[in-house]
Amino acid sequence: MTPHVRTAALALAVLLTAAACAKAEEPQSAPAATGSAGRQVVQSPSGTAGPTCTLQQFGGTAFDLRSAVVGFSQSEKEANPFRIAETKSIKDEAARLGITDLRVTNAQSQFSKQITDVQQLIAQGVRLLVIAPLNSDGWEPVLQQAAAKKIPIITVDRKINAKACSDYLTFIGSDFYEQGKRAADRMIEALDGQGKVAILLGAPGNNVTTERTNGFKDRVKEKAPGLTISFEQTGEFAREKGQQVTEQLIQSNPDINGIYAENDEMALGAVTALKGAGKEPGEIRIVSVDGTRSAVQGIADGWLHAVIESNPRFGPLAFETAQKFLNGEAIPDKVIISDRDYDTGNAEDSIGEAY
Length: 355
What we know:
With 355 residues, this protein is an alpha/beta fold. It folds into two domains: 52-171 and 312-335, Rossmann fold, CATH 3.40.50.2300; 176-310, Response regulator (Rossmann fold, 3-Layer(aba) Sandwich). It contains twelve helices and 14 strands. The chain has helices at residues 3-25, 55-58, 81-97, 111-123, 140-148, 176-191, 207-223, 239-252, 264-276, 293-300, 315-326, 347-350; strands at residues 52-53, 69-74, 101-106, 128-131, 153-156, 170-173, 195-201, 227-234, 258-261, 285-290, 306-309, 331-332, 334-336, 341-343. The strands form three sheets. It has a six-stranded parallel β-sheet, with helices on both faces. Strand 2 (69-74), helix 3 (81-97) and strand 3 form a beta-alpha-beta unit.
């Protein structure tokens, strides 16, 4: 081998080695999301049962989503992984579809601001509204203005107490009552149907809190008369508040056996409180609802017993529903999605699929 060839070969070997090392040092991406852990999956067949609405019934006119002004109203501060994933999903899907004028507002957990936000979107000429409502009541001013301009409204994650196909088009979200029942099943399993349980209630004034509470209580009453709900207090769906309430709980009910948190943020706040009180993982069983990555990790670490998923990735289904409506298809008054469970049997392998 001549010196020139030998030098070139050495250089090529160095480049190949460097490339291999660089590839090996690249951060590994999370496992591909599958099933309802990724794109939302509509329950079948009951997920689309009930009254329907067409563009003709609604009284609106068809338009091109790609060139229309589209509004998304987020309700809460995006410190919560659910809200972060929800907004990202809307933005990502709009970009994928080529929607060029998506306008996003955030009410920062203030209902009066959300009403103003949506009214401003209407004044700006939106043709479609996707709303994640903070509260279920109090939307009359917005609904009247939207109806006057025949603007279809899709609510996601929480319901608005109004009439479908006139005040709004449809609701897309989980069966919250069923989530409460499934959470109760996991708590009954964890405690063998005996003991004292506390409920960290979500924020008042919306259907999510009401239905997750009723589902849990009804299931406990039905299946586990030996399980007593001895403490209930709102943690407002917030981690810090969940920690504060759990600290009070430990003082007032030192013999508590389980905690049902109506979202993961409160559950994680409860974990912080239990750690501060010197409790061991699993000493008090925690079941929650959401499916955030931190909560699923909490199962793997032994602090949570189970988590019922509530999938926040509404973008694809929301815009798919809107397009079907504009195409003249009948849209159900509610589109219920399927949600998975996380537990000790699948948590470790599913962390990458959580949000």
